Amino acid sequence: MIEINNVTKNFGSFTALNDINLKLAQGEVFAYIGPNGAGKSTTIRVLLGILQATKGQAKVFGMDAWKDAVEIHKRIAYVPGDVNLWPNLTGGEVIDLFVNLRGRHDNVLRQRLIKDFNLDPTKKCRTYSKGNRQKVALVAAFASGADLFILDEPTSGLDPLMEQVFQDCVLEQKNKGKGVFLSSHIMSEVERLCDRVGIIRDGQIVQVGTLEELRHLTRYVMKVATERAIEGLDSLPGVFDVAQDGDYTTFNIDTRQTGAILHHVSQFGVKKMESAPPSLEDLFMQHYSKAN
Amino acid sequence: MFKNTFKLTGFILKREKVNSTVWIAALVGTNALLVLLMGFSILTDTAERIEMLAMLENPSLQAMIGPMHSMNTYDFGSIYTLFMLLMMAIPVAIMNIFHVIRHTRADEELGRYEVLRSLPSGRLSNINAAMLSALILNVVIAAGFTITMWLTMGVVESGRGFMPALLWGVSLGAVGFTFAAVAALFSQLSASSRGAMGFSFFVMAIFYFTRAGADQDLSRESEALALISPFGLISRSWIYVYNYWWPVLVVLGIGLVFAAFAYWVCSFRDIDQGVIPQGAAAQMVVCLCALPLG
């Protein structure tokens, strides 16, 4: 559905995208991750045909993203990370406008989504919090019946409950065979939803692969203090980067092996234990720092 | 390129319901009040009018309000339009500049334009909708000024026809449209709404002062200078004296040139980008201030 071939985008002397290649197949959810300013939004704006690629070509549904923008936009839905709406219109009026411009809409789905997202569409946009503005755009997008969803960090500002509703919506679209291009910085979201992941840094694609291939991104960090020193940790499958930090032993685990690892560790009399998903920043520090 | 222009125009007018109604009612109401006030209290008889006209034979006053006609008429209509035409044209121009920038660059700056562009709307639909809504507002302005002028002038002075009142209304609407186009151009050239606003008002000031330069020359030898300015042009309609229509057409023509240039820039530029580098306005002011004139 999406095909980006050797796209370069310069702003004056600054290179925002440097020879990017990406593909998205039908029914696929593609996660696009990278630190702030890496070029995620620039890529999306090239796909939307609102930035013109300096070099290379971006295609959506086989059409040129810049030249055939209107045709393409009939079949895509876009949600930006920071939705700004018209303060003196209600959320419902904004959704109506989007529907009206698109000319295609599923009203039953819209009512259900408004209920699921717990949105009050009769309120003026100026009274909405960031999360609520985000919901307006999400409802309009998911009720649009589009074939491709381009989502640019769409869940920023949503609480965990709504994050769950969002993930369900994405999976629902995926099951219908729609494509989803999801720029995200929430690893758990990426892990649950996405088939393939692309990583961008400083305008360059560092790695593209299936979630399976990029397992190192979804490891958890464990920090354990035990009565006796833990033995044999290094040789356990799914344990990486073991280090001793005072009383604590820290190591990364593959979440699929959590049970076995916990079982092993518990033999040594666990006093304290912390576990956390690595932040995106940590991942980038670890795996994609400029040195390598 | 223009897909969904009419829907977007409807959307702009919906957002503008209150704002524009207040602006237009205030402008048109002021006009009606001033006609009645001046007609019944200041310029009630010929002696007062002759005295007023004598006072206006003065370069600096004409530089301020506009050029006096050469015919010896002492009727109220001609004096009123001489006094008030530019004074009314300026707020109309300001209203149009605000309107167009609000619906182009300001929307873009706040990220709303991006959402509209991601929907099936053409690259030029939004600027086209902004200009079309401005055109509609200016038609309403023209109609409002025409009707109030026709009615109130009829109360003050009998025997005044409809055509001069129409010329008055249409002149103001045409100036409004032209400055809408000026603002449309700078909304494309400048990457910020403040910059676009600054450039538009700067151009408005230039147009005002070029005609001021021409009008303060009472020998009327620098007429050509006045004819490049929309303000200079409409004051040469000599409403209630000669009632020329050609200046209105020229003013509209100038507006169309600005609009065409704006559409052209809009057709190729990237979102959130301008053509004039950021900070150019500030640099320009610094340069101007460094001139001996400053």
Descriptors for this entry?
heterodimer; A: 292 residues; alpha/beta; 4-stranded antiparallel β-sheet; B: 294 residues; mainly alpha; 13 helices; globular
Description:
The complex is a heterodimer of chains A (292) and B (294). By secondary structure, chain A is of the alpha/beta class. Chain A is 30% helix and 30% strand. Chain A contains nine helices and 14 strands. In chain A, strand 7 (148-152), helix 6 and strand 8 form a beta-alpha-beta unit. The longest helix of chain A has 16 residues, at 160-175. Chain A starts with a strand and ends in a 5-residue tail after the last helix. The model of chain A has no long low-confidence stretch (mean pLDDT 87). Chain B is mainly alpha-helical and 294 residues long. Chain B is 76% helix and 0% strand. Chain B is built from 13 helices and no strands. Chain B has helices at residues 5-42, 46-56, 59-65, 76-103, 105-109, 112-118, 125-156, 163-189, 193-215, 223-226, 230-235, 246-268, 280-290. Chain B starts with a helix and ends with a helix. Chain A binds chain B through residues 11, 45, 48, 50-52, 69-71, 73-74, 76, 78, 80, 82-86, 88-89, 97-98, 100-103, 137, 150, and chain B through 3-4, 7-8, 11, 15, 110-112, 114-123, 268, 270-271, 273.
Provide the β-strand percentage band of chain A: 25-35%
Which strand-content bin applies to the residues of chain B? under 5%
Distance between the termini of chain B: 44 Å
Tally of helical runs of chain A: 9
CA radius of gyration of chain B? 20 Å
User: What's the helical proportion of residues of chain B?
Assistant: over 70%
Spans where pLDDT lies below 50 across 5 or more residues of chain A: none
The arrangement of helices and strands of chain A along the chain is EEEHEEHEHHHEHEHEEEEEHEH
Tell me, briefly, the overall form of chain B.
globular
Mean pLDDT of chain B: 89
Distance from N terminus to C terminus of chain A (CA atoms, Å) equals 32 Å
Structural class of chain A: alpha/beta
Radius of gyration of chain A: 22 Å
> Which two chains share the most extensive interface?
A-B, 29 and 23 residues
Number of strands of chain B: 0
Name the quaternary structure. Answer: heterodimer
Contiguous helical run count of chain B: 13
Most strands sheet of chain B: none
Please give the number of β-strands of chain A. Answer: 14
* Residue windows where pLDDT falls under 50 for at least 5 positions of chain B: none
Principal-axes geometry of chain A comes out as: globular
